[in-house]
Input
Amino acid sequence: MFPRRELYVKIVMAGEGAIARKHLAGIQRIGGVEVISLAGGNAANTEGLASEVGIGHWSLDLAECLAQPGVEAVILATPTPIHAAQAVQVLQAGKHVLVEIPMADSLGDSEELVRVADESGLIAMVCHTRRFNPSHQWVHEKIATGDLTLQHLVAETYFFRRENKNALGEFRSWTDHLLWHHACHTVDLFQYQTGEVADQVSAIQGPIDPKLGIAMDMTLGMKVPSGAVCSLSLSFNNNGPFGTFFRYICDNGTFVARYDDLFDGAGEAIDLSEVDVSTDGIELQDREFFSALDESREPNASVRQCLDAMKTLHRLEQAL
Output
């Protein structure tokens, strides 16, 4: 469909927040990728970031950025509620898209995005970064070769967000969500590691916050047909440490993953230096997107591959 070539691609970065900055840092270590335009939501922040990293064009209008000469692809690091609509806009403009997790905040919008992606013939991928963190890659390979069998994945996702602020401490124009954003990472990871879709789910949540309008605490459970289970605890009320931590309880050992690092049950670090070309999961995820574009193939974490996670999230939402 797309002829293989020496990788050189001009892209648009959409988003001027903390996650966009992490993508930009990763791209600096990937050859053959040029960010020629920055699409943002806040004029001062967008102009400031463009100036800081040397992006020649910026706009608050995504369509204007898409129209810049030579643009082939877009990375969407924008607010969750507009992911699906913007991804559809990008595909309909004839550009490949890498959209931050989650691809949408509803099953219906996810299915529509997959439909548009299939019809377009373009590459559409989701930032399911956990698939690419060296820690989770190491476990995935051990499961694939039969060295490990997952029995129980225990995950904790904890933040302190009693005000509507982002990771940079800046006020947001939208509200984050424990289920459709943060749980999405673990739901996809559990099903990816087991190679199965959960056939049993359970969910409970705490009170709805009167200011933010969302549940600040949540507990989710899943089980796949082979018998492996997943327990996920989430909170916006936790005052540190922050982040998501995974405990893989297996038949042949226990392992704790903290983003790109992995430890055994005794707390000893596992050497991951040979797992991939980098130890940065976001960089590795972006490399997969650009490699898929270069090789004209479906990427790992395509929107179609990740639709099962959205279906499971929908069932969890119904259980709430």
Observations:
- The radius of gyration is 19 Å.
